[in-house]
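Progress note, sequence design subtask.
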């Protein structure tokens, strides 16, 4: 009997950047495959163009961005709203999303934001599991 263990790529090869000079193409290359079918390309472009804070994860081994979060601040309510959050499918399950969300949480706490809000589909169990793992609480809203 043989056993094989395939270690995930090291998280030390990634770096998280906030409001760097990301190119539109870099952000779109991560988010378009994940969200184009849901939003359409024009709405996706509008969301990318309208946010206050962009967070992206750069993978040095792959020489590209592999995750992005588009965050809108609501300073009157001291709330951050994550408009879009995505990790490339090939990079999911490696802890990248967890590290990115934790970096946003830590930054938000330091800047005295009261809460961080994000939405997902009720059947997106993978995302829900991630959010619950890092202590986001479920709240059901019906539009």
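Output:
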């Amino acid at each position: 009997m043989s056993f094989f263990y395939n270690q995930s790529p090291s998280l030390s090869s990634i770096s998280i950047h906030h409001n760097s000079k990301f190119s539109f193409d870099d952000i779109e290359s991560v988010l378009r495959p994940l969200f184009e079918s849901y939003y359409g390309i024009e709405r996706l472009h509008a969301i990318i163009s309208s946010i206050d804070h962009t967070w992206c994860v750069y993978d040095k081994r792959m020489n590209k961005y592999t995750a992005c979060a588009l965050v809108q601040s609501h300073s009157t309510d001291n709330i951050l709203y994550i408009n879009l959050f995505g990790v490339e499918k090939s990079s999911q399950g490696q802890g990248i999303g967890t590290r990115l969300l934790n970096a946003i949480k830590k930054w938000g706490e330091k800047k005295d934001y009261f809460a961080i809000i994000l939405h997902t589909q009720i059947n997106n169990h993978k995302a829900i599991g991630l959010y619950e793992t890092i202590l986001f609480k479920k709240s059901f809203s019906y539009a």
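Confidence is low (pLDDT under 50) at residues 1-7. Work on this subtask will continue into the next period as scheduled.
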